[in-house]
């Protein structure tokens, strides 16, 4: 009986793995085509035309901050230096208990002002709005609000306070390239369909040379966990999201860098304050809104690195982050289970949601079951391990091929690294990633699922940061 069950499981895993490999090959081909089309595009509006135009849409840069006193001044200065003729920076102090607000008031000469605040989407109580008495900082608006233990709630307050039709959502620890707004706004200007959101590549700032909030020189991270995350980001952003963008199936625009059509975001209800994966959940509701209204739309991804962010440098902080991500994924799939195989929602219901369920949610569970099966087989059955070794080797080889192609394409297109040594280190990290880093992610995902089903409360906290005024030091 046990042997029969294990054989059935083995066949299931074999078919599942083959399906996953085929789907990833298709995604890789779509990504290559999309990147090539983007790089060879001749119909794009030149940046200088956008900068001189009187008809470009205004953009509100919305950045929530909770206990970010170490970096907030430099980050705001960086945001105020972006190149775009019509934009504002909306910084939300989400009930910080440190000196975040005090530093902002002192550095940018802020005073509390009368402000017409209309709560178009739900947010906790706003205590006040601050503007600068110095004309140099006229683009800055600081929103001081009560903490609701939710990043989504903070961003909603920022959206309510913003004045432009597009908003760019970013994190306070992010460093944006000077032309980020232009690059993300272009699809809204050029799109044949109504573009409701755009995103772009995010890279890791750990170990980069950063001076007063500005990126001076890019370096490969020195810590083990930041290095693994660099590899992960290259693969995910270059292959995964570019492919989904090509077929208008993008479900995830990173909370660290995403531009949105404010009207559609507000009509969809804004960010859901109880969600731990608020960016994915908002995109899902925006897609549903457009489907329900029978309106053609597009969500686009830009294959350029426009944002650098500090990532967890220790296992403990990484696990906490990935637990939150895992819970956010299952929350979104559960909140919107009506989407699954619903003809009203087109490819979202028949392709995107099933893919995320099978290959994002289910894989950690299958890996845990696989470990249990191996242990049972070892103790109770005289199992032939040749098939297992063949399958594992095939999956590992496929992973290496995809990862090496990602690294090669990334270097050919962007040339982010200072020398060949950094690329070689990245390749070596790829070889050991499945054995050293992947198990940590699987553990965090399973822990997140467990917390979800136990309905354990989890809140938006602050990640331990090293600050951006000097080059970060790694052990």
From TrEMBL:
Name the CDD domains for this protein: CESA_like
Q: Which domain of life is it from?
A: Bacteria
Q: Which GO terms describe its molecular function?
A: glycosyltransferase activity
Q: Which organism is it from?
A: Flavobacterium aquariorum
Protein name, entry field: Glycosyltransferase family 2 protein
Give UniProt keywords alphabetically: Glycosyltransferase, Membrane, Transferase, Transmembrane, Transmembrane helix
* Signal peptide region: none
The family line of this record is:
Belongs to the glycosyltransferase 2 family.
Under the heading Gene3D superfamilies, the entry gives:
Spore Coat Polysaccharide Biosynthesis Protein SpsA, Chain A
Domain (Glycosyltransferase 2-like) ranges: 60-199, 240-381
Question: PANTHER family, per this entry?
Answer: POLY-BETA-1,6-N-ACETYL-D-GLUCOSAMINE SYNTHASE
- Membrane-spanning regions, if any? 6-35, 352-381, 387-409, 421-440
